[in-house]
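Intended use. Records like the one below are meant for learning the mapping from a protein sequence to its folded structure. Do not use them to infer anything beyond what is encoded.
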Amino acid sequence: MVTGVLPSPGIAVQDISWKAQVRLCKRYQRLVAKGKHANVVTVAIARELVGFVWAIAKEVPLTQ
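Structure written out for the chain above:
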C-alpha cells in the first residue's frame, strides 16, 4: 500500500496535459460530426494521445 502525497507534476506537465485535453476533445467531436465511425475516431485519438504522453515523459526526470 502506498501512502503519502505525490509531488506536484509541475507547470510544464499541467500545460501539456491541458493542451492534450482541449485538442483531443475538439478533434474527437469534429471527427464524429464528420460521420467517422466511433471506433476509428477512438483509435485516431489514442494514437495522438501517445504523442502527448511522450512529451510529458520527456518533462519528468527519471527516478529510481
